[in-house]
Write a structure and sequence with these properties.
- This protein is α/β, with parallel strands linked by helices.
- The protein folds into two domains: 179 residues, 3-Layer(aba) Sandwich (Rossmann fold), CATH 3.40.50.2000; 162 residues, Glycogen Phosphorylase B (Rossmann fold), CATH 3.40.50.2000.
- The chain has 13 helices and 14 strands.
- The protein has an eight-stranded mixed beta sheet, with helices on both faces.
- Helix 8 packs across helix 11 and helix 10 crosses helix 12.
- The protein is globular and about 60 Å long.
- It starts with a strand and ends with a helix.
């Protein structure tokens, strides 16, 4: 069975759910990874079983395809079909990781379609909830199967999904060696290090971070990821920029605690943070604000406000028990998620 995967992000971008799932599925299937971009369309070979169709559609805003009309998507279907023919794809599954590609499902009504509802796109700028509802209505009619990472997303959009949470490449995080560049990056930072890895966006509760950093001036609060940092923060809050995926295990081993200081709002209630699984894979304690699908027992310290978060940081530093966290990560690997999707594909 061949798979055409319509991705909301680029293959060489931040390594997330799309790349992990495609990599796992490519063990048994040929996959055409179709990505957005501003240039001319190009076809590349990533591995023997993964082909990359670059710059297939243009995006705006947060890397989303909501600016593409149904007419433009339908017109692009012919180009995509020709690429599939060139690759000798026969009766492929159309795997949509963005709802805005729903016109493809309607254009090819006899094609098996798997839709992955990864995000609540209404939280992003210039996304019309009315337009999104129309896309989801199309997918309710034309998608053969639907999955999501979060129960709240399924409930909000009434998609009747199978829940496929996010995960971690546990074996990779266990086997990765320390990168010298990461040693240099952290060389001048005093310990203990309270760390965050991921996108730096408005969903981070900066008032909560500032409160904890002010209360514990001898700790280093370190943020690793791309995005705009707030202009006024305590001097012990450090922004190190984005690192390659290959360096993430080394970065996390520099952390004494991993934090998820998200605001509790409609945005964060619809996420299943990959960083939770990655923190646990290296065994570090996790301090987080509310997580909608619950917290693994013995793995996460949960706080509802700034004072509680600061208190939990102190408690987590005294927690030496990494076994429950590693067991949680091991049982929530991407290999487990891929097996679940394989079972879904087999029923389509």
């Amino acid at each position: 069975m061949d798979i055409v995967y319509i991705s909301p992000i680029r293959w060489d971008g931040l390594y997330q759910r799309p790349q992990h799932l495609v990599k796992g599925l490519s063990v048994k299937h040929r996959v055409l990874f179709v990505e957005p971009g501003p240039g001319r369309r190009k076809l590349h070979t990533v591995t023997n079983s993964i082909n990359l169709l670059q710059d297939f559609y243009r995006t705006s805003g947060q890397g989303l395809s909501y600016n593409l009309s149904r007419i433009r998507w339908a017109a692009s279907a012919g180009s995509l079909f020709r690429v599939m023919c060139d690759l000798s794809f026969q009766d492929p599954v159309l795997f949509l990781a963005t709802p805005f590609a729903s016109p493809l499902a309607r254009k090819w009504p006899n094609t098996k379609v798997l839709y992955d509802c990864m995000d609540d796109h209404t939280i992003f700028p210039r996304v019309s909830s009315t337009v999104l509802q129309k896309h989801h209505a199309t997918l309710r009619r034309h998608a053969t199967q639907r999955i999501t990472s979060n129960t709240r997303l399924d409930y909000k959009f009434n998609l009747h999904c199978t829940i496929v949470p996010n995960a971690v490449d546990y074996d990779y995080f266990q086997g990765a060696t320390m990168e010298e560049s990461v040693d240099n990056l952290f060389a001048m930072l005093p310990k203990p290090i309270v760390g965050y890895i991921g996108a730096i966006r408005d969903w981070i509760d900066w008032r909560l971070v500032a409160f904890s950093a002010t209360k514990y001036p001898n700790m280093s609060f370190v943020f690793v990821g791309s995005g705009r940092a707030p202009s006024k923060m305590p001097p012990n809050v450090h922004f190190l920029g984005r690192v390659d995926y290959g360096c993430i295990p080394s970065v996390l081993r520099k952390f004494d605690i991993g934090i998820i200081p998200f605001k509790v709002d409609s945005c964060t209630l619809s996420v299943d943070p990959v960083k939770l699984y990655e923190y646990c894979a290296v065994g570090i304690p996790v301090v987080s604000t509310y997580l909608p699908d619950g917290c693994p027992e013995g793995c996460v310290y949960v706080a509802q406000h700034a004072t509680g978060f600061a208190d939990m940081v102190l408690r987590a530093l005294e927690d030496p028990h990494d076994v429950p966290r590693k067991l949680f990560a091991q049982s929530n690997s991407w290999a487990v998620r891929v097996k679940l999707i394989e079972d879904i594909l087999a029923c389509m």
